[in-house]
């Protein structure tokens, strides 16, 4: 069986990591996997995919603007080029030896579905986040689900909230309600790591409570709320430091804001890291302040590391973190409630926080190992 995974880019991200781990999981490893990227970018995950002999192709929705072409003409050409995507994808699928098209993006989803159907391929669409689709697009997808057999088209989502936010009609029709939670490879998080290596590298004292997070530094992750917290509330009086790992379009802006407000001793954005399990092992608490989420791998990794979690209640986070059981949650976007939640977590004993971490690990182990998730996808592939 040959499976083509459609993703945006091979840049660092949760979807990219998930697709790689899914394809290499024991239930699916024996099949042939390819990835088809729809956006031209710096593919810093390329080496990881090639290491496992996953074939990489590019079929971009459109091309980059060309400086030697008048702006309006260039814009018009790119528009029409993107509208032809259905035919370009159909031709690609006809030429390929693929049996299944597994899409992990929502852009041009109608074109993807039609190209798969016209080429005779089975299509799986996994909804990874809370997406805003036009009313026409939603109605067309509903129509496709009605007339196309699940043997040819299956729509899944990583959380109920991701499904209901993207396709509201599914909330009223259980026949369309198909959830496959995200999963991770647990093994790297079971190894022992030097808990003080990260602290030493960033000059963080051993008596400071280290609160950390991993993720793209983009508006969806809401790391600006941590800056607002430090700027406007009394959290700086606590012996606490926020350590944020990841890259993104807002990182430089946040670093400048930290310098302007003299917050260097309280929060650090350290960029991408190679060893996430090692980084997480150094933390006392994990925080996820996102304003929108599907079912983030970063939180699953923190749960696998037995960390107590603080998170907003955005999207699928409310399905991951049970307040008072494996962490604490607060109303997304409410800085005052974020402040109260952090103080409440910091005032817990080490034993109570450790119990949160153990509960988080147990919950993740039962529901979110990549092997269990892969078995569910395998069943969908072979319906």
Rounded to the nearest angstrom, the distance between the terminal CA atoms is 13 Å
Question: Which consecutive residue ranges, at least 5 long each, have pLDDT under 50?
Answer: none
CATH architecture identity of the largest domain: 3-Layer(aba) Sandwich
How many distinct helices?
16
How much strand?
15-25%
Number of domains: 2
Mean residue pLDDT: 94
The CATH superfamily label of the largest domain reads Glycogen Phosphorylase B
Overall structural class, as computed from helix and strand content, comes to alpha/beta
CATH class of the largest domain: Alpha Beta
Share of helix, binned: 40-55%
Which topology of the largest domain does CATH recognise? Answer: Rossmann fold
Radius of gyration: 22 Å
SSE sequence, one letter per element: EHEHEHHEHEHEHHEHEHEHEHEHEHHH
Strand order, main sheet: write it out: 3-2-1-4-5-6
- According to DSSP, the number of beta strands is 12
Largest sheet: 6 strands, parallel
Q: Which word captures the global form?
A: globular
Structure description:
The protein has 16 helices and 12 strands. It is an alpha/beta fold and 383 residues long. It folds into 2 domains: 195 residues, Glycogen Phosphorylase B (Rossmann fold, 3-Layer(aba) Sandwich), CATH 3.40.50.2000; 181 residues, Glycogen Phosphorylase B (Rossmann fold), CATH 3.40.50. The strands form 2 sheets. A 6-stranded parallel sheet has the order 3-2-1-4-5-6, with helices on both faces. It starts with a strand and ends with a helix. The model has no long low-confidence stretch (mean pLDDT 94).
């Amino acid at each position: 069986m040959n499976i083509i995974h459609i993703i945006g880019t091979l840049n660092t991200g949760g979807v990219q990591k998930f697709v790689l781990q899914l394809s290499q999981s024991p239930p699916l490893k024996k099949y042939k996997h390819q990835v088809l990227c729809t956006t031209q970018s710096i593919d810093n995950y390329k080496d990881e995919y090639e290491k496992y002999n996953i074939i990489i192709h590019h079929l971009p929705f459109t091309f980059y603007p060309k400086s030697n072409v008048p702006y309006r003409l260039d814009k018009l050409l790119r528009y029409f080029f993107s509208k032809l995507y259905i035919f370009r994808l159909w031709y690609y699928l006809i030429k390929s030896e693929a049996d299944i098209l597994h899409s992990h993006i929502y852009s041009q989803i109608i074109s993807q579905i039609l190209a798969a159907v016209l080429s005779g391929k089975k299509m799986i669409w996994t909804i990874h986040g809370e997406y805003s689709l036009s009313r026409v697009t939603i109605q067309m997808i509903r129509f496709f689900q009605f007339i196309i057999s699940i043997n040819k088209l299956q729509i899944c989502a990583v959380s109920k909230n991701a499904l209901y936010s993207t396709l509201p009609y599914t909330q009223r029709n259980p026949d369309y309600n198909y959830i496959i939670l995200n999963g991770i490879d647990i093994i790297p998080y079971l190894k022992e790591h030097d808990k003080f290596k990260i602290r030493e590298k960033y000059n963080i004292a051993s008596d400071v409570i280290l609160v950390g997070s991993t993720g793209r530094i983009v508006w969806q992750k809401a790391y600006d709320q941590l800056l607002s917290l430090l700027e406007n509330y009394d959290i700086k009086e606590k012996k606490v430091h926020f350590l944020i790992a990841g890259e993104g379009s807002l990182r430089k802006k946040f670093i400048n804001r930290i310098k302007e407000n003299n917050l260097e001793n309280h929060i650090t954005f350290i960029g991408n890291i190679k060893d996430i399990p090692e980084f997480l092992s150094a933390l006392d608490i994990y925080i996820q302040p996102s304003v929108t989420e599907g079912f983030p791998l970063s939180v699953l990794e923190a749960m696998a590391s037995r960390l107590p979690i603080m998170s907003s209640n955005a999207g699928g986070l409310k399905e991951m973190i049970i307040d008072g059981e494996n962490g604490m949650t607060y109303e997304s976007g409410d800085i005052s409630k974020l402040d109260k939640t952090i103080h409440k977590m910091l005032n817990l004993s080490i034993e109570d926080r450790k119990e949160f971490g153990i509960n988080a690990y147990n919950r993740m182990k039962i529901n979110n190992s990549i092997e269990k998730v892969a078995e569910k996808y395998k069943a969908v592939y072979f319906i």
